[in-house]
Design brief:
Elements (H helix, E strand, L loop, with lengths): L4 H6 L4 E7 L6 E7 L6 E7 L10 H12 L3 E5 L2 H4 L6 H13 L5 E11 L1 H10 L10 E5 L5 H10 L1 E4 L2 E4 L4 H12 L4 H12 L12 H11 L3 H9 L3 H9 L13 E7 L7 H11 L4 E7 L13 H23 L2
Parallel strand pairs: 3-4, 3-5, 5-6, 6-9, 9-10
Antiparallel strand pairs: 1-2, 2-4, 7-8
């Protein structure tokens, strides 16, 4: 989001390669950004989560090149489900496959490699890191604005409130969060019913319940139509067993016991409109004592300092906090 020309002037141009990495459904095309030297370099698998722009957006290339200029071999993982604004458990299995492929490259140092995730991508990076395939080969995990539990996150969205200081307070849900919520819940329904509910809740009118909804469709409608804690809790309690199981599968706090990374860097904006900071605080409580955890709350408007509208001294302080939080990640990546 900010000018990076000084870094470009002081570091050599990275190598950008078109590659194919494995997934459960077959090889996936992507781009890998790495330093121009032989290495070996610490590898970093980047889980961007749901983004409102495509893989060709200039900011994607800026991120990949910046990581390569910082010394990493960076593979950007793009989820087909998240491109469709859905959260799907298949990514919990595909991310380890991509990471295993990355650290097997001849110019990547597997002993100093790890994962980086932003937003829901951070939650999926944590869940994937518990996989038996890779959990003992991860040197670090860097997360920005993860959620802790699909149960509490759904309650936050449906009630437009968050837990803060032991109390519930109003929370203005970002339109992107709401869209992902609608698409993810309706994904459990037959395609025709799912499309009808998506159109219904994307309109600005007060949605009335359609006729002839299936039992699952009525449950999804009730949750999407909720606007307060009481109705949201009632709708969540009425979900069928298959949906409840998926909610638990998509909850990072249920994977904590199998996360072996020696370092986790966790950051979140205090006023984040996409995922409330209460989710990170909940996850922090679950992780503390189980690994070396660096936790920081900032005011970057969901990792976009240009929207934070801070004075220069305030912005400098926030960047200082950011630097002190991520510095252990770089130290972990290069230590002998």
């Amino acid at each position: 989001m900010l000018p990076s020309k000084p870094v470009d002037w002081m570091t050599p141009s990275p190598v950008v390669e078109q590659i194919r990495y494995p997934s459960q459904s077959g090889p996936v095309e992507g781009q890998l950004y790495r330093p121009s030297t032989d290495g070996p370099h610490p590898g970093i698998l980047v889980c961007l989560g749901v983004v409102p722009f495509g893989v060709e957006h200039p900011q994607v290339a800026v991120l990949g090149k910046a990581l390569a200029r910082a010394g990493f071999a960076a593979l950007l993982y793009w989820s087909p489900a998240m491109r469709d604004y859905r959260l799907n458990a298949v990514d919990i299995e595909n991310i380890p496959l991509a990471y295993d492929w990355l650290i097997g490259l001849p110019y990547v140092d597997p002993a100093h490699s790890g994962l980086l995730g932003t937003c829901v991508g951070a939650a999926f990076a944590l869940m994937a890191s518990a996989s038996a395939l890779i959990r003992d080969r991860i040197a670090f995990i860097a997360t920005y604005a993860p959620y802790a539990s699909m149960w509490t996150f759904a309650l936050d969205i449906a009630s437009a409130s968050r837990s803060f200081g032991g109390e519930r307070q109003p929370w203005q849900v970002d339109p992107l969060t709401r869209k992902v919520f609608v698409h993810s819940l309706t994904a459990y329904l037959p395609s025709g019913e799912a499309e009808a509910l998506r159109k219904l809740f994307e309109s600005e009118n007060d949605p009335s319940e359609p006729e002839d909804l299936s039992a699952e469709g009525r449950v999804v409608y009730a949750l999407l139509a909720s606007r307060d804690m009481e109705s949201a809790e009632k709708a969540l309690a009425g979900m069928p067993a298959t949906m409840q199981e998926q909610f638990s599968t998509l909850s990072p706090e249920n994977y904590v016991q199998d996360i072996h990374a020696p370092l986790i860097v966790q950051m979140h904006d205090i006023g984040d409109p996409v995922i409330p900071v209460s989710e990170s605080r909940q996850l922090r409580a679950a992780l503390e004592g189980k690994t070396r955890l660096h936790y920081t709350e900032m005011q970057f408007h969901h990792l976009d300092p240009s929207k934070a509208k801070m004075s220069w001294p305030h912005l400098a302080r926030e960047f200082g906090k950011f630097f002190l939080t991520v510095f252990p990640l770089f130290r972990q990546a290069v230590k002998g």
